[in-house]
Structure formats: C-alpha cells, structure tokens
Amino acid sequence: MYQNRLWREPLIADSRHLNRPLIAGWYRPGIHGLRSGQKAIRAVRQLAKSKDAGHKGTVVIVEDDPGIAESVAYTLGQEGFRTISAADGPTGLAEALAGQPDLVILDLMLPGMDGLDVFRALRKHSTVPVIMLTAKASESDRVAGIEMGADDYIVKPFYMRELVARVKMVLRRAQAGAEPSEEVLRVRGISIDRARRTVTAGDREVTLTPQEFALLECLARNHGRALTREVILQQAWGESEYIDPRTVDVHIRWLREKLEDDPSAPQHILTVRGVGYKMAE
User: Fold this and answer.
1) What order of strands is seen across the sheet that includes strand 227-228?
2) Strand pairing category for 204-206 and 198-201
3) Which residues of the chain fall below pLDDT 50?
4) Measured between alpha carbons, how far is residue 217 from residues 112, 192, 199, 222, 230 in Å?
5) 56 and 24 in contact (C-beta within 8 Å)?
6) HEC per residue, the chain
7) Distance between CA 183 and CA 181 in Å, rounded?
8) pTM of this prediction?
C-alpha cells in the first residue's frame, strides 16, 4: 500500500527514540520493511555515495547522534549539497577550518569540546555561516548562540524541510553579500565594500559575520531612515518561516560593540524609540 506514497515527515529529535528511518518525507520501495534505525542508516550511506557530483556547496555537519547526522547528510545530499560529518567537537572544528565549507551545522551538546567552544574557536579564523542545532529550547540558550554571532539556530525536535529552508536562506544571504560589485557604501566614516566583503570604521578594519554584514548594509542603504524590526528582518534576513524580532536587537548590540567608540552611547547606529533603528546621516 506504500508503493507510491511518501511517509509523513517526522520530527527529528533523537534517533535513539525512533524505530523507522529518519529521512524526512522519504520513502523508497526497496527500503520499505526495514525495521531498525541501523539498517536505515546503512541504506542511507549506500544511497548517498552516488550524490557527490554537481553539488551546490559544502556543508560541515557537527553532530554526535549518528542517526540525525546521517539523516541531515542524506537530505542535504538530495538537495545537491556535498556534506562532511564530524561526531565530536575537535573533529568538527578541524573539518570546518580545513575543508573551507560554505556552511557549518553545529550541535551544541558535543563530546570532546562543547559546541559553543567550537564556535568561539572557529570565529577566530573564519566567518563561515553557522547554523546552531540544539536540544536546548530556553530563550537564554537560543539568544546565547545569536549573541556569539551565529547566523541562525534550530531547536530539536525539528522538521527536515525547515532545516533545508534555513540552510538555503543563510547561504543566499552570504552569497548575496559576496556578489561582485563596485559599489562602496560610505556613511559617517564607515565604509562598506560589497565586492571585497570588508568594513572599515575610520582607519580600522572591522571583521563581521555574514549576517552582521547584511544588517549593516541594510542600515547603510537606508541611512537616515527609521526602520522597524520587521523591515530589517525582511531586508537583512530574507525569507524565513519565523525569526524572533529580538534577534535584530542582539545583532545591533554586536554591531555597536564592533563599530562604535562607545557602544553605550552610539553615534552611528541609533535607536528610534517606538520604531526600531536607523543609521545616522
């Protein structure tokens, strides 16, 4: 009866608690009947081997649950991405630095080295986009990742199609910022070079994450105009199922710490009470 239909997409939480293949929305007649997660994982490995050519980019997956890691790798492979997996913090950091990926999916609860420590070490050498994957659902844990400069986060349990949508969204933002352009935006001593992906404040070069760069560019293009958080999310974050508007506040604070002489009394990125933010003219 299942020959010509797909399974309904399951929530991906913890592969140890699932007794069927983890692949969201995926069914193959030849795979039907597999009863154990281990058999499903072996089948995924065999199918994924043929998905290496013509990839859209490289994604490093740092996740210690083998079922979730295999499921994410398979799904992204089906979308045309090449994936590299690591099951612990030190290996994940090494792969992210050596492999020069386009994106890193980073679980926070990792053996050997905590995910936040991996992120801190990675940011010292790379601005590669990072999506944090975590079972920690509290607001403080989610905000902590964003405050450190993560581009996005997903809380377990999650739907695989949501993960794919967020991967594509983050990559679109990073690639849009990297598109060749001769345009250099200059506002009150801050220069934003889109072609070179560089920012200078006075004579000081400032290192920004891809999301921080997109936010600063949004503000600079609209300098003098007060923008609501919703408008900023639309222009700087792009399409997404939902992003908490307070994410804007966190990124604004980080931009001020990097750009302002005194972040507590900003001269460039101003708060407009009751509205949102604007970049001073």
Assistant:
1) 227-228, 276-279, 269-272
2) antiparallel
3) 1-9, 15-53, 181-182
4) 38, 7, 10, 9, 16
5) no
6) CCCCCCCCCCCECCHHHCCCCCCCCCCCCCCCCCCCHHHHHHHHHHHHCCCCCCCCCEEEEECCCHHHHHHHHHHHHHCCCEEEEECCHHHHHHHHHHCCCCEEEEECCCCCCCHHHHHHHHHCCCCCCEEEEECCCCHHHHHHHHHCCCCEEEECCECHHHHHHHHHHHHHHHHHHHCCCCCEEEECCEEEECCCCEEEECCEEECCCHHHHHHHHHHHHCCCCCEEHHHHHHHHHCCCCCCCCHHHHHHHHHHHHHHCCCCCCCCCEEEECCCEEEECC
7) 5
8) 0.54
Tokens representing 227? 């923008």
Residue with tokens 């997660």: 37
Each residue of 216-232: pLDDT tens digit?
999 998 888 888 888 88
Ramachandran category for residue 100: left, alpha or beta (phi over 0 → left; psi -120 to 50 → alpha): left
Size (the chain), residues: 281
